[in-house]
Design a protein that fits this description.
alpha/beta
Amino acid sequence: MAKDLMFQNEIKEAVRDAYAGISTGAGETVARWLYSDEELAEVPAGAVAWALGVGNPVRYALLQPGEDVLDVGSGGGIDSILAARRVGPQGSVIGLDILEEMCERGRRHATEAGVNGWTQFRRGEMEDIPLPDGSIDVVISNGVMNLSARKSRALAEIYRVLRPGGRVSMADLTVEGELPPEIANDQSAWAG
C-alpha cells in the first residue's frame, strides 16, 4: 500500500471529527450576513441555526425550474432548501454530506420546508460522489472545498457528475501565498 504523504486520511478524520463534535451551526447572526430576509424566510429556523457556510452560492447559480442540483457539503440544508425552491418539484436537489447526522438534519429541515418530495440527502464524500456520470445540471457548494485534502480529486468528481453544459456555483475560502508550516500541518486548521 502506498504511503499517504499528504496525510489525507488524517485530515479527513480531523474534519469529520470536528464537524461531528459541534452542537450547533453559526446561526442567524452569520446567516443574515449571507442571505437576504426573503431567502431566510424560505427556510426553517433549524436550517438557519445550522448555517455554516461562507457565502450564498444559490443566489449566483441562476437555477431554473426543472434542473437537477447537487449541493456538495449540504450540512443542515439551508442551500439545498433554497435550491429546491428555485428548481421546484419538476427538478431535484441532492444534498451530499460526509456526516449522516447532517443528512438527518437536512432531511428534517427539507420536510419542514415542504420540499422533501424533490430533495434528498446522501452521505458521501466530495472526492467520491455517489452519483452517475452526467447526472447533474448544477453543482453548488458553500465553504466546503477548502476542507478537502484532495481538492483536484473533488473538482474532478464535480466535473464527472455534471451534464454537458452544466455549471458550478461555489463559495469558499482561499489562501493567498504559503501558510506557515505550523498552520499548514495543523489538522484543526483544516477543519476550521
